[in-house]
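User: Show me sequence and structure for the first protein, then do the same for the second.

Assistant: Starting with the first protein.
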Amino acid sequence: MNKFTVFIVLGIVKVSCGALPPSVPVCKRSNPNLSQCIASAIETLKPRLVSGDIGGGYSVPKIDPLFVNELKFNENEGIAVRLTGVNMHGISNFKIDKLRANINDLKFDILITVPKLTTTAKYQMAFSFLGNKLNTNGDFFINHENMKILVPIRLRRTAKNGVEVIRVDPIAVQILQFKVTKLNFSNLFGGNKAIEDIIYTLLINNSDFSSSNVRPAFEGNLSRVFTDIANRILENTSFDEMFPV
């Protein structure tokens, strides 16, 4: 048997036998406290999610800081904002408030609280004011506190090389509530205090701007990252391996 054939055989054996990262705790599907077991498993993984190194040669996008290339807030009240080089700090400090597991339907709803989420970036802003289009740019900083996030995870079974493996459907994260405690745009229109006051009033006190722009932008990126992490961890994992009898 040549080396090429050996590599192919070993690859098939790895997939057939499952490939759950060794650092990932498993929970028996018959566990009467399955929800608590899964919550404990997530807590065990938290330090590894910060670095992105799951062990056993597995890596996932690190969540702290969570990096996003770009966030766009569509025009609202005459303000349009584009953020680049976005870094979110504090997600790894999340607390699990509630976890509901339905092993039969493979549905898992996790409610978490992020006590403090700090986001930094570079910003570009366009502002329509008294018929004029004003543009500015600089450094962006925002603090969110007590951010409540619902993470609904839906698994499905599918076949891979004759083995039943687990896949994660796109996770649609929902940010249920948050409080902005600090917001800063450096060099905002050259330090024009009158325009600064208008901008901050519109952005902080305008719930419509938050619900139609800020929240969807954060939800979309958290959804993408959480889905990517879950699928990488479970890439070649069989249902029986993840949830043994």
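Switching to the second protein now.
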Amino acid sequence: MPGYARFLLLLLCLILVGECRKHKSRKKRWSAPAETHKLGNPLSKKVADGTKTRKVKTTHLLRIDEHDFTMRPAFAGPAVPVGVDVQVESLDSISEVDMDFTMTLYLRHYWKDERLAFPSTTNKSMTFDGRLVKKIWVPDVFFVHSKRSFIHDTTTDNIMLRVFPDGHVLYSLRVTVTAACNMDFSRFPLDSQTCTLELESCWYNRLYINFTLRRHIFFFLLQTYFPATLMVMLSWVSFWIDRRAVPARVSLGITTVLTMSTIITGVNASMPRVSYIKAVDIYLWVSFVFVFLSVLEYAAVNYLTTVRDGKERKLREKVREQSQTLPCTCGMSHARTMMLDGTYSEADANSLAGYTRASMMAEDASEKQERMVVHLSLDNESTGTKKKGIRGFRIIQNTHAIDTYSRMIFPGAYILFNLIYWCVYC
């Protein structure tokens, strides 16, 4: 029996030794990779975890539960000085129609709250995320005239809270805000706007940040001014087209008028409905008037041509009647003989007081080929009567003169307008 007990004791000792060896080999296997790192490798350095060294929680360190943070620091005492720092990240958009601007910025607040002071041997600050902000007092700063704003939350809330041992606090957040901007478009698009971002606190203090925005005009030169100028110049082409080409001149005039209307409509669609005249309105409407006057010019030319043709027809009939009723006046001192046909000379035309060459053109091809001799007897007694008759049949001046004058007057007036316009607004 004692031998059997000794055997069991020996067997138990062997089992314990075997288990100890297994435990040591398992521990060595898990710790071996850490020993194979080379010197200088960041993984070989053991970084101290600050959360393990702290013996108290953050809320206990800052004594948040011991104070009422729904009230400001030093309540019932002097006002708390709060510093505000704004760093503009980007100016996202400017809307003339809505009269607002959108920007993304970093908004930082600085103040001192002695209730958050904590003991520190290294005098280093502690940084927290947005979860602690909900537990402490922060300044009630808001954007005045803000239409919409939000705090960025990708991938987490873009909020940082930094507390220093003496109680100084830095509160920073990334915000996108859309604020109203009262714009004056009386000089649009040759204008500059001043937009103001206002921050205010229920302490009734307001911070103004002014942004001066100057508009680049090159875009509007390409989209508005150059097309309008080209349409006005295109309307002048009708002055060089024959006045009898009615379809060509009418279609050209209507096309330029409709194009100018489209340009004006497109510009006004992208602008707010203001009750005053803008600089671009002056240019476009003056250009529209020039185009419209070119259409009226042809209407006047066409009307005068029609009136002249009617009077020519009557004149030809009277000349034909006089040629049939007048006797031969051969040998009389004041007799004049003229050849009247469709291709007479300048001297023959000048011999008629007030008549033009076109007034003596025949009505059809057969009349152009025939020639007739008309003897006009002008004695001393009937000279005054004949002159009155000729004045009565005086024809309106050649309508070609209206087109000739328009070729000089329209471009000259438009160039003068452009000089005045750009001198005033530039």
